[in-house]
Amino acid sequence: GVKAGSAAALAGLRREDVIVDGAGPIRDAAELDAVLGSAKDEVLLGVQRGTERLVLKVGLPPPGAPRGAR
Fold first, then answer.
1. CB atoms within 10 A of CB 60
2. I need a surface site. Which of 6, 11, 29, 59 has the fewest CB within 10 A?
């Protein structure tokens, strides 16, 4: 799910969304972690929402901040 107030929620991600790409294809959680880990302060994610394809900008917390922080 998407935690209320998280960077994902603030970017507009929803529970049913499927993240399909970032800086390249994202096929699993490890690839998503790699994309998020290599980004500085924001990342563009390709999202499949039902039949609609979206690109969402996700702001990332500063290094060392707890997960879910912004």
1. 17
2. 29
